[in-house]
């Protein structure tokens, strides 16, 4: 029977009291004096007054006295009625109090001694404890009550009340099993009562401490399913004298000694016996229950007390069998009985009986992974999970357990129903036997940290992908998806979880997100660590219903994982021995299976014809990306690799979009095009260390522009510094004059290209580049430049670039300083690998663009009959070169008389004549300064030639603008005739022109 919960405990141990007796009320007597006194007074007045009216007072006295007597009797009757009513009320309250105390006492009695019906029907947890068995319940009936009522009864009601208080009805009737309990009467009912008694003994006696001795009879097969063995300190003997199967029956009498047992003395035996009649029972039984009907029985004690009627406690055979199986499972989970000694030391996966499942269903991932003593240990991630936590120290068999679990899943379920992502931070050897199974989407190891981080980050995208699949199907859970929809459950196994978190602390948030949302999406985590306590976040462990602990070193670790210290008590010599809690709060000792060669071969054969499971992440970007790779990705995205001038729906032209590489986006499970949109992004700056592929990146941008706008659309600023100077100023002049300009200007090594130039030219070149960047956007001219360090450029120049392509940098700090994501830095990457908008990128391989045109320098030729004024840094060497070129050289020096010319020299200085040779005046800057008058005359009529630097240039040419930049060395010079701009010419040796006609390069 089920006990009732009372709001308050009545004081059962305090005695009650009968209400006080009202007592006897005497009837009032006749008031003789009260009658005579008025008569005597009236006669005295008559005697004195003689008036007959005074005799009236003699009559009033008796009348008042009689009235008073009658009124007293009326009041007495009223008091007696009130006393009787009060007594009746107090008795009713006493009865109610007795009933309340009886109810509490009955409840407490059933709590102390639960009915076998409650144990069986409500699966009450066993109350196992070492030591002797307590008294058992044989039925419900009357029992002595602890309620006491003080007082002496005065009538039948009070006597009945005392009897009622002393007796507790519907109370458990107990019997001492060590005194022996026999059940006789109708045999099916007697056996049902004996079953109820055995159930109670098994409920109190701990397996391994209570030994069962059962009849070899079909009626008692159910008891053989109990976890109690035939060895133990305490013994329970069950005798069935009514069994006709011929099974042996022990006729030994029952020991009735109740004294303390010495440590060496044999244990007493509790006896439960069944027979058709009392005469067939073994002698010495202290309690005999005769059962005549399901609700009628009589219990007789050997102590001679009168038989007591009761309602017998009965248990059916089917209920007893079910209860025995459940109790055995509880015992296995609790690790009682033999403490795991009955488990085998080695279990082969192929020898385990796997559960019968529907391999095409997504509702279950049940698989046997070991043995728990009572049968195979079945773990179901879909039903018990959704996630699992596995602990175990080195050598405990943790990796073998994971391998056996995954192999069992692979044998039972096809790749379209379950897939594995394996993360092993011990080098990857643990999962090598199953790497080639089609269920395995990938094995990530600590040998490739970038791959490990990419794989785990891709799981965020996997969450979104599964959410989209469920949303399109209108399903709330993966279990409800139609069979034709491709979406397998993904089991993510992380061996050495603590090592992964130490390397990548940010991945803890990804794991927590999967743990919170993975159940309905079909994502399951199996996190293995030597000591998960303190490593795995609480948000994760709260969702890991399955807990497995193989051998651990600390009791606290065992308690933290499985809520029991058993895992810390496992012997180091039994690898694979562990404790599992499948989410029901009952730890079970088990022996993990081993995936031997046969089991692995069976898994490969079972999935030989299956299609490989969908991989949740892509491979890293290749070290070489071809233009065809861009086209493939573009087609999958529905765009062209080079998109320029494509009309939109409204007919407006879209801006140019150029694909320069492939972007890796693991968080979206995809690769995309690295596209540069100059109108929106601005000019492109490529930053990277030497050898990082900067030149190749510029070539990729140039190739993309050339593919759309033609070969003449790209100008590469390259070559000698004279060519670079001319290109920059030519572009700037065309830009400002409105002339046609190229689409793209490519400048490599922008930070060091002008470093060796003279200061004026270096600053002038940087100003020209900055002007191109600033003014080019309005004309559709874009600049793609490369540099090794952004600090090598001025702030104005840096800020003029709108977007950066960051290739490999020497250090992580250099990358961060350039504006990159430090977490994407890798020490060893191929050329062209870097970052684009915060994502990994590999630049497409492209041929460097051909130069837009050749850069030729005109030759300086001496024309016969002309006069030349030459300012040279080395006038002697210059004079020799000019003399060998056919000129008549007149050296000038500081303080020299230039009028004393060489014999036969024609004409006056600066006046051309009809002579066959050119006249050349040569001197350094100081000589020309000293001969200022000559210099002034020659500036107007002669050709001014400067072979030197700025000092020489200023000596003869008064123009303050910068002349064209000369290349390094002494093979170039400046030349200018009055009224014409300064030009750059090659320095002799030059052959003298034979004819007097002028060419386009002559002065």
TrEMBL record:
Residues 241-264 are annotated as: Disordered. Residues 374-559 form the FtsK domain. SUPFAM superfamilies: P-loop containing nucleoside triphosphate hydrolases. ATP binds at residues 392-399. The chain crosses the membrane at residues 30-48, 54-72. Keywords: ATP-binding, Membrane, Nucleotide-binding, Transmembrane, Transmembrane helix. It comes from the Bacteria. Signal peptide: none annotated. InterPro entries: AAA+_ATPase, FtsK/SpoIIIE/SftA, FtsK_dom, P-loop_NTPase. This is FtsK domain-containing protein. It comes from Agromyces neolithicus.
């Amino acid at each position: 029977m089920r006990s009732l919960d009372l709001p308050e405990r009545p004081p059962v141990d305090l005695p009650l009291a009968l209400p006080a007796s009202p007592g006897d009320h005497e009837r009032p007597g006749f008031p003789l004096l009260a009658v005579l006194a008025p008569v005597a007074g009236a006669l005295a007045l008559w005697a004195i007054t003689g008036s007959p009216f005074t005799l009236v007072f003699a009559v009033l006295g008796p009348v008042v006295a009689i009235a008073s007597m009658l009124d007293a009797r009326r009041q007495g009757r009223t008091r007696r009625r009130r006393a009787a009513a009060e007594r009746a009320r107090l008795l009713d309250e006493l009865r109610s109090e007795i009933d309340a105390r009886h109810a509490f006492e009955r409840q407490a009695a059933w709590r102390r001694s639960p009915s076998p019906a409650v144990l069986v029907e409500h699966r009450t947890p066993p109350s196992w404890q070492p030591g002797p068995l307590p008294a058992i319940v044989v039925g419900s009936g009357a029992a002595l009550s602890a309620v006491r009522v003080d007082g002496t009864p005065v009538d039948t009601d009070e006597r009945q009340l005392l009897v009622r208080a002393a007796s507790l009805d519907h109370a458990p009737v107990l019997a001492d099993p060590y005194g022996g309990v026999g059940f006789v009467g109708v045999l099916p009912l007697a056996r049902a009562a004996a079953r109820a008694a055995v159930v109670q003994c098994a409920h109190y006696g701990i397996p391994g401490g209570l030994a069962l001795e059962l009849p070899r009879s079909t009626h008692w097969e159910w008891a053989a399913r109990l976890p109690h063995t035939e060895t133990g300190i305490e013994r329970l003997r069950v005798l069935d004298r009514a069994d006709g199967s011929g099974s042996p029956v022990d006729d030994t009498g029952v020991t009735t000694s109740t004294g303390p047992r010495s440590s060496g003395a044999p244990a007493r035996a509790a006896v439960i016996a069944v027979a058709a009649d009392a005469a067939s029972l073994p002698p010495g039984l202290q309690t005999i229950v005769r059962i005549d009907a399901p609700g009628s029985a009589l219990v007789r004690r050997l102590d001679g007390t009168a038989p007591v009627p009761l309602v017998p406690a009965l248990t059916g055979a089917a209920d007893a069998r079910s209860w025995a199986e459940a109790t055995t499972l509880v015992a296995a989970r609790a690790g009682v009985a033999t403490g795991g000694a009955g488990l085998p030391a080695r279990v082969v996966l192929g020898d385990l009986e796997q559960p019968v499942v529907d391999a095409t269903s997504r509702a279950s991932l049940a698989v046997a992974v070991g043995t728990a003593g009572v049968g195979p240990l079945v773990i179901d991630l879909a039903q018990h999970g959704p996630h699992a936590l596995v602990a175990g120290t080195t050598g405990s068999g943790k990796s073998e357990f994971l391998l056996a679990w995954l192999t069992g899943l692979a044998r039972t379920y096809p790749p379209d129903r379950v897939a594995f992502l394996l993360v092993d931070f011990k080098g990857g050897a643990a999962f090598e036997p199953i790497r080639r199974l089609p269920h395995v989407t990938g094995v990530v190891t600590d040998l490739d940290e970038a791959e490990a981080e990419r794989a785990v980050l891709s799981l965020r995208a996997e969450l979104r992908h599964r959410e989209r699949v469920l949303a399109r199907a209108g399903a709330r859970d993966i279990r409800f998806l139609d069979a034709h929809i491709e979406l397998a459950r993904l089991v993510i196994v992380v061996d050495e979880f603590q090592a992964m978190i130490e390397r990548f602390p940010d991945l803890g948030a990804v794991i927590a997100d999967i743990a919170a949302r993975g159940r309905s999406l079909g994502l399951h985590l199996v996190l293995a660590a030597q000591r998960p306590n303190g490593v795995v976040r609480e948000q994760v462990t709260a969702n890991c219903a399955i807990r497995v602990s193989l051998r651990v070193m600390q009791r606290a670790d065992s308690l933290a994982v499985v809520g029991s210290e058993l895992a810390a008590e496992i012997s180091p010599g039994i690898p694979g021995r562990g404790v599992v809690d499948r989410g029901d709060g009952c730890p079970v000792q088990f022996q993990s299976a081993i995936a031997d060669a046969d089991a692995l071969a069976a898994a490969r054969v079972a999935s030989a014809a299956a299609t490989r499971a969908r991989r949740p992440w892509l491979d890293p970007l290749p070290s070489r990306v071809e233009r065809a790779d861009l086209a493939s990705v573009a087609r999958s995205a529905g765009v062209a690799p080079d998109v320029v001038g494509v009309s939109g729906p409204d007919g407006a032209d879209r801006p140019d979009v150029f694909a320069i590489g492939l972007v890796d986006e693991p968080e979206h499970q995809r690769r995309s095009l690295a596209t540069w949109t100059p109108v929106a992004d601005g000019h492109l700056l490529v930053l990277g260390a030497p050898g990082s592929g900067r030149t190749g990146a510029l070539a990729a941008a140039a190739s993309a522009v050339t593919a759309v706008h033609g070969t003449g659309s790209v100008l590469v600023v390259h070559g000698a510094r004279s060519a670079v100077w001319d290109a920059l100023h030519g572009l700037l002049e065309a830009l400002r004059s409105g002339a046609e300009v190229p689409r793209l200007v490519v400048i490599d090594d922008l930070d060091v290209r002008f470093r060796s130039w003279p200061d004026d030219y270096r600053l002038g070149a940087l100003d020209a580049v900055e002007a191109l960047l600033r003014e080019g956007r309005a004309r559709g001219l874009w600049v793609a430049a490369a540099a090794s360090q952004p600090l090598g450029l001025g702030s104005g120049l840096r800020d003029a670039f709108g977007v950066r392509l960051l290739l490999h940098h020497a250090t992580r700090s250099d990358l961060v300083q350039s504006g990159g994501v430090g977490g994407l830095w890798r020490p060893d990457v191929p050329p062209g690998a870097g970052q684009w908008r915060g994502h990994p990128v590999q630049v497409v391989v492209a041929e460097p663009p051909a130069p837009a045109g050749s850069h030729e320098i005109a030759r300086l030729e001496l024309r016969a009959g002309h006069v030349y004024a030459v300012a040279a840094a080395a006038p002697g060497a210059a004079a020799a070169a000019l003399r060998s070129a056919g000129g008549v050289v007149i050296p000038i020096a500081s303080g020299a008389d230039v009028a004393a010319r060489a014999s036969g020299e024609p004409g006056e200085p600066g006046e051309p004549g009809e002579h066959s040779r050119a006249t050349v005046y040569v001197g350094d800057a100081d000589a020309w300064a000293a001969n200022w008058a000559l210099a002034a005359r020659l500036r107007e009529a002669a050709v001014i030639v400067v072979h030197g630097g700025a000092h020489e240039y200023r000596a003869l040419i008064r123009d303050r603008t910068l002349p064209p930049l000369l290349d390094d060395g002494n093979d170039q010079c400046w030349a200018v005739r009055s009224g014409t701009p300064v030009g750059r010419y090659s320095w002799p040796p030059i052959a003298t022109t034979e004819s007097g006609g002028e060419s386009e390069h002559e002065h």
